[in-house]
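SAMPLE LOG
Freezer: B-3
Tube label: C17
Construct: single chain, 232 aa
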Amino acid sequence: MKKQISIVIPTYNERNNIVPLCNKIATSLNGKYKYEVIFVDDNSPDQTYEEINNVMTQYPMIHLIRREGKLGLGSAVKEGFNKASGDYWIMMDADLSHDPIYLPDMIKALDNNDIVIGSRHVKGGGVKNWPFYRKFISSVASYIARLILTVPVKDITSGFAGFRKEILEKGLSQLTPKGFKILVEIIVNVKHAKIKEIPIVFVDRQYGKSKLSIKEIILFLLLCIRLRKING
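STRUCTURE (predicted):
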């Protein structure tokens, strides 16, 4: 029996990306899996939520959670997972940097793993159209995080990942995500999980502005330090 899939996508000023993203997800999964897409929008000034409401008339499997303000990507993912009904939970970005073409590979890998990460840092993975400073910041943040936490994951800052419901559901309430990354907290808190990284090519966004900032990087590294102290 095929598993049911829940895809959670946080949004903030992503109006131009909603239709192409939904179309790409449908192309990748329609006829293969029963799935739902849960958008969590932080009351986007560009009214992304209106575009999501529009595509909901075409795709009945799409749902919208509209929040009152900008509360952060990590907390948006957590809120979306709280509403997820699938057997496998997947998080991905709305900016088309995470290509839905990889979804079937991720879902298949979840049949034999607890956590599957779309990784830029394994053989076959990489980035496309990124300026040097973004590559540098991402690589440094990932390297420092791995040193702090000593976890066997090469792309610990990835925002594209899937989880088996039973491995994450019980500990979801304990997550306190701050900033733009939730994966690192999940990896540290979910003990003895079987983790697999699959290669993806991360493509820089075509529309809108990147959410990455020095502030977010600092919050991420502070989170790593806090997790190290808590978990020894």
